[in-house]
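Lab notebook page, bench 4
Experiment: in silico fold of construct C2
Operator: M.H.
Input chain length: 128 residues
Purpose: comparison with the prior construct
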Amino acid sequence: MDVEEFRQRGKEMVDMVADYYSNIRERRVLPNIDPGYLSSLIPSDAPHEPEKWEDVVKDIERAIMPGMTHWLHPQFHAYYPAGYSFPSILADILCSGIPNVYFTWIASPAATELEQIVLDWLGVQRFR
């Protein structure tokens, strides 16, 4: 995948996620499947050649979505609320697209300092 295809597929993926949120009410909250359901839907051996992107995306709906619990479904009231939002999804894209290692200051000065500032904000808010 080159940068232009990445750009195109990224836009398509954002549309796919937006469609998922727009239509989530139409999905079952909990999957109606039996353990082991997935093994009959995907090949038993890893592919030797890359699959077409379009086929991978079709497989998500065909094979993966039937086995998903939809935590953001308005009728899902178990466990605890899922902390997802559109800004957090965009932040995930940014963090994945500009990867970094944040374990020391020299590894990523901006990330380390931003983390300290935000944690200070949270600490001040907590003790006000």
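Observations: Residues 3-22 form the longest helix (20 residues). Residues 102 and 108 are 6 Å apart (CA to CA).
Next step: discuss at group meeting.
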